Amino acid sequence: MEDLTLIQIIILSIIQALTEFLPISSSAHLLLPSKLLGWPDQGLFFDIAVHFGSLFAVLIYFWKELTNIKFYTSKLFFLIVIATVPLVLATLFIDELGSYRWSIQTIAISNLIFAVLLYLSTIVGKNTRPNKDMTILHALGIGVWQIFSAISGASRSGTAITGALFFGYRREDAAKFSILLSIPTIMGALVFIISKNSNLTEDRYILDAFIPFLTTFIVSYFCIKWFISFVKQVGYLPFIIYRVVLGGLLLWLI
Q1: Average pLDDT of the chain?
Q2: Average of pLDDT values for 125-130?
């Protein structure tokens, strides 16, 4: 992150904040500036800082719900845990899982494929079920869909939302479940990465994290609020179109 300018850090932090919870792949969008514009790779520490910002935004946004003891004895909390299991198991058994720095071609093709799948999920699914009616099998199914997020450009939120929509859940509930599902997913990834890189806890790294963390947190918080409201009223078609355009443009560039 030392080679990045302040403007580049802020721009990349905003990109992370705007794309983490939208079904358009944050990791792919963070990779594109270095691939297309020649920007320095932001590196592992930047990724950790901005993901902490995204995680903190979710915790604050759902603070009342998460601090309510009823949440931890509720069916929804149990289902979030269940939906996290497939990705955890896949991470344990597949060493390469989570390595997203692939080629632009991979990102382009993934955007096209998962845009089509997202579109099909809006057609096939009745999209009338609330999250309170979610079953254990559906939660597991959504968790299995989330495994595909290891593919560069697939999008963690996008795969989880696609799975939820295929099972017939309401558009806004699919978005909310995906965002809540990001809590254990991001926390697990951060714990794993930090445990493998103990020097990241040095004071100079913590100081460097402030700007990307704060920028990502602020933008992410308002993005979550906007996203849930937007998909409830408009749906996912704008994101589908965006992914198709992005995938086609990237293929044309290469």
Answers
A1: 86
A2: 84
Query: What does the pLDDT average to over 76-103?
Result: 78
Domain ranges of the chain: 6-253
73 exposed, middle or buried (CB, 10 Å; 0-12, 13-18, 19+)? exposed
Residue that the structure tokens 């409201």 belong to: 229
Burial tier of 58 (Cβ tally within 10 Å: 0-12, 13-18, 19+): buried
**What percentage of the chain has pLDDT greater than the value 90?**
52
Q: Give residue-wise pLDDT tens across range 170-179.
A: 999 999 999 9
From CA 19, how far away is CA 24, in angstroms rounded? 6
The residues near 65 (Cβ < 8 Å, ≥ 6 apart) are 71
CB 55 within 8 A of CB 187: yes
Condensed to tens digits (0 to 9), the pLDDT of residues 148-203 reads 988 888 999 999 999 999 999 999 999 999 999 999 989 987 887 777 665 555 55
